[in-house]
Amino acid sequence: MGFFSRRQAATIEPSPAVGPRTAPTASGTATAVLDPALAALTGHWTIDSPHSRIGFSVRHAMVTTVRGAFADYRSDLYFDGEQPSRSRAELVIRVASVDTGVEQRDAHLVGTDFFNANRYPEMVFRSTSTVYEGGDSYRMTGDLTIRGITRPVELDLTYLGSVRDAFGYERAGFDGTTTIDRTEWGLVYNQRLEAGGSMVSEKIRLQFDISAIRAAPVA
After folding, report:
1. In a domain, 22, yes or no
2. Total domain count, the chain
3. Residue 57, Cβ neighbours under 10 Å: how many?
4. Residue of 27, 192, 206, 211 with fewest CB within 10 Å of its CB?
5. 30 domain-assigned
6. Predicted confidence (pLDDT) per residue in 56-101, tens digit
């Protein structure tokens, strides 16, 4: 579900984590049930950007993998530990903040061949449903908008646990992944290799490494 803020966090002190558990049914068959302790996590959260990563990976020239991340983003997120179906997320990313470690490549990505940041400055994900799948796993479905094109995607989410850090903040961790076909969002630029295949793969893996801090209540 993602949760974020740009406030700098401190070193985390060890603390027991809470998370989903599996309990046996009357017949002895294991059935996934939500840990009641998750109810305490219900509420609004924000991403701690210095300790999180909104990234991607893509095959380059058929033989290597290029990885990048976005540094500038904001979110509106809510987690319901009792009824995960009520959880929701909105993530707005400034595409001009892309960083792959190579300035020339980043400039190409924000240009008209790819993101066209001048015309479409933001990439947006808005959740439409959330399902608890057992253990530490959730699935969030939502609409992803890139270059003005909106299409549905599904995120596989793993809950990593929660702690109270050295500053007294409640912190929860999630990992999320999904794979998309970039051409479905109008990102069709490519170059063909002499030996066959493409310079840049059409499949893009999106990765969300999230450290979330509980948002302060609004007065």
Report:
1. no
2. 1
3. 18
4. 27
5. no
6. 999 876 678 999 999 999 988 899 999 999 999 999 999 999 999 9
Both tokens assigned to 130: 């959330």
Q: Is residue 24 assigned to a domain?
A: no
| Residue 186 CA neighbour count, 13 Å, CB half | 15
Taking residues 11-25, what's their average pLDDT?
41
Q: What is the CATH number of the domain that holds 103?
A: 2.40.128.110
Contact indicator for 134, 32 with CB cutoff of 8 Å: yes
pLDDT score, position 60: 75
Range of the domain at 63: 36-214
Those residues with Cβ within 8 angstroms of residue 121's Cβ, 6 or more apart along the chain or in another chain: 94, 95, 96
